[in-house]
Amino acid sequence: MFCTLHAQDGAAQSTGSNPKSQQGLGGMMIPMIAIFAIMYFLLIRPQRKRQKEIEQKRDKLEKGNKILTTGGIYATVSHLKENGAVVVIDVGGNVKLEIAKSAVAEIFNSTSSS
After folding, report:
1. Is residue 66 located within the same domain as residue 90?
2. What would the DSSP string read from start to end of 56-112?
3. Do both 53 and 79 map to the same domain?
């Protein structure tokens, strides 16, 4: 008797008459899309905006700017080399360092009158 009931139950599932299995895929996609949208607007978009602002500041870098490097060094820009890709900084006491432009974390003042 148990074997016949089990066989009938399996036959009913194989016909696709279970509406919950068809609804599950659509019901899972909506929350997944909502989570992705929330992550985009809370995490990804502000980070891209911040990165764009930093790049714009780095492009305006010029001699005499006070900067902070990603390594934590406060310095003054002495001059730019290699089409602006390398920044020569003066850290004081006749010590000059060459750093990559991407290593500039923050610019504190601008010598231009904008």
Report:
1. yes
2. HHHHT--TT-EEEETTS-EEEEEEEETTTTEEEEEEETTEEEEEEGGGEEEE---SS
3. no
Tokens, residue 88: 């020569």
Per the structure block, which two tokens stand in for 60? 């305006």
Predicted TM-score (pTM) of the model is 0.59
User: Using one digit for the tens of pLDDT, what is the confidence trace for 33-54?
Assistant: 999 999 999 999 999 999 999 8
Class of residue 87 by CB neighbours under 10 A (exposed 0-12, middle 13-18, buried 19+): buried
Q: Taking Cα atoms as reference points, which of 91, 61, 63 lies closest to residue 77?
A: 63
The total number of structural domains that make up the chain: 2
What range defines the domain where residue 95 resides? 62-107
Angle, CA of 104, 107 and 109, to the nearest 5°: 155
* C-beta separation of 104 from 67 below 8 A: yes
